[in-house]
Amino acid sequence: MYEVPKRRYAAIVFFVAIFVITFGIYTDSLPTIPNLSIIKNIPGQLGSYTGEYEEEVPQKNVSIFAFIMTFPDKHTTRAKAVSETWARKLDDYVFTTIKSDANLTHKNWEIGFEDANHKRTDRHWLWDRIRAGFRRMYKEKWGQYDWYMKADDDCYYVMENVRELLAQYNPEEPWYLGETVSAGSFYPSGGTGYILSKAALKKFVDELNSPNTHCQRNSDQMEDIHVGHCFTHLNLSLIPSVNEKQEHTLIPINLKNIMIVEEKRNNFANWYISASKIPVKQGPECCGPKLMAVHYTTPPFEVIPRAGSDPGISAINSWV
């Protein structure tokens, strides 16, 4: 096995501890833990982690609104976890769900089946949900924020790093941020979501609403492919999410599937690694120090308070 400098070990473990989190098993009250010794099964090549966190990073001067997709059976688990972790770093957000729920920990938009071309609650409704969410976001929120985001309830975002990147771009120009993969043509993976500038959101929704739209009209599960087709037609500009060392910062799979050997990875992880527009390095070299998002987080996870009472940093208590 190749050697990785100790400083790199520490950096990778720090980010793994923060970002490889999970939402599947989540109790009604967030657990706290008396110490930071839970990170005990991380493979040795990742080094050791002291459990010492830095102070809050000042927020960059950009405003971000998000709609976060969830379902009723996830309202008290994933949605609750999102509300009490990374979503707190947004300027504002809503959950989109098929049934409004006063018990949701944050306000929500009910997107019912009148927005779909059929009455199924499976993945075949994804493209309908995306369009309905962006349309309502444009109708109610456009002009109030610089950037507009679609996210899932099983993804974790590092908003400090997202803001730092977006601060370099003008929201009055048609930019978008996403991890680019290929299925014949390139498109942004839905796993780590999409972030559109104010100008890009207007162009996208105008195209969706046009009677002569070039976007997919019918229900379909491949929402990210259709998003990519629309963005390409609209000539939206992609914000790079891979740094000069070809380290990725938007990871649309569970991070551990990049760290483990190929024969132990699932089929989707192997597909992503082969389909990424820019090759994905495997092992600790995969990801940049400004990691922004990881997808497919799996149970269990616990929240570790920062200095004061901020529960915005999470850590894993198992690795494999």
TrEMBL record:
<comment type="similarity">
    <text>Belongs to the glycosyltransferase 31 family. Beta3-Gal-T subfamily.</text>
</comment>
<feature type="transmembrane region" description="Helical">
    <location>
        <begin position="9"/>
        <end position="27"/>
    </location>
</feature>
<keyword id="KW-1133">Transmembrane helix</keyword>
<keyword id="KW-0808">Transferase</keyword>
<keyword id="KW-0547">Nucleotide-binding</keyword>
<dbReference type="GO" id="GO:0000166">
    <property type="term" value="F:nucleotide binding"/>
</dbReference>
<dbReference type="GO" id="GO:0016020">
    <property type="term" value="C:membrane"/>
</dbReference>
<feature type="domain" description="Fringe-like glycosyltransferase">
    <location>
        <begin position="63"/>
        <end position="241"/>
    </location>
</feature>
<dbReference type="GO" id="GO:0016263">
    <property type="term" value="F:glycoprotein-N-acetylgalactosamine 3-beta-galactosyltransferase activity"/>
</dbReference>
<comment type="pathway">
    <text>Protein modification; protein glycosylation.</text>
</comment>
<keyword id="KW-0735">Signal-anchor</keyword>
<keyword id="KW-0812">Transmembrane</keyword>
<dbReference type="InterPro" id="IPR003378">
    <property type="entry name" value="Fringe-like_glycosylTrfase"/>
</dbReference>
<dbReference type="InterPro" id="IPR026050">
    <property type="entry name" value="C1GALT1/C1GALT1_chp1"/>
</dbReference>
<dbReference type="Pfam" id="PF02434">
    <property type="entry name" value="Fringe"/>
</dbReference>
<keyword id="KW-0328">Glycosyltransferase</keyword>
<protein>
    <recommendedName>
        <fullName>N-acetylgalactosaminide beta-1,3-galactosyltransferase</fullName>
        <ecNumber>2.4.1.122</ecNumber>
    </recommendedName>
</protein>
<keyword id="KW-0472">Membrane</keyword>
